[in-house]
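Good morning,

Attaching, inline, the backbone tokens for the sequence recovery test we're adding to the shared suite. The designed sequence is right after.
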């Protein structure tokens, strides 16, 4: 059911086409698998512990990626945009193949939106993804101290991957979210970018929170 936004534009309901659901599912699975291979190495592909790492990546990398993109879509639709996620299958293939040779570059796709929009609304749409990752990092944090090894690993890696995703996407360059946010508001950009970078730095250099 549609409503009217404060700016007088018709606000659409959140819906997903079959293609979009397929793209989200493929990107979630391939990206999670690529990270699992990257973390364990191709030699461990058939090792018993590899399945645990795959599940861990599905619950951390996959969830972080999916909710980041869905946050973009939800806010875009709230502002009356037509929005949909589209997977980049060439980049997903590159991520998977790169993982087998020891590097990973993850750009699985993006939410594309169109319609009339203000700079503030565009900035808020971009900001929604990184902020969602920061919220997820806070949710994962208590699990990092759980007495169960798998939960502790999921919590620790969930914090690590989400602060990394937030910091990376807030870089003010090219198509990344940070460039759009900076163009809208320098103050808001600094308020999100600086904590994200500090959190990512601590997770990488001080905590050493990796699942393997």
């Amino acid at each position: 059911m549609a409503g009217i936004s404060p700016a007088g534009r018709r606000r659409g309901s959140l819906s997903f086409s079959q293609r979009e659901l397929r793209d989200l599912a493929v990107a979630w699975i391939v990206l999670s698998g690529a990270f699992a291979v990257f973390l364990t190495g191709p030699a461990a592909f058939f090792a018993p512990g590899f399945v645990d790492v795959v599940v861990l990546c599905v619950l951390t990398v996959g969830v972080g990626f999916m909710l980041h993109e869905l946050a973009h879509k939800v806010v875009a639709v709230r502002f009356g945009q037509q929005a949909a996620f589209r997977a980049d299958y060439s980049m997903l293939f590159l991520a998977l193949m790169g993982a087998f040779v020891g590097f990973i570059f993850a750009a699985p796709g993006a939410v594309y939106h169109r319609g009339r929009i203000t700079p503030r609304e565009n900035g808020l749409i971009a900001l929604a993804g990184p902020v969602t990752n920061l919220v997820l990092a806070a949710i994962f944090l208590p699990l990092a101290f759980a007495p169960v090894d798998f939960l502790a690993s999921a919590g620790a890696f969930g914090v690590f991957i989400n602060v990394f995703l937030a910091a990376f996407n807030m870089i003010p360059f090219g198509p990344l979210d940070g460039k759009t946010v900076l163009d809208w508001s320098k103050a808001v950009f600094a308020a999100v970018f600086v904590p994200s970078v500090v959190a990512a730095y601590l997770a990488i250099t001080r905590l050493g929170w990796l699942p393997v």
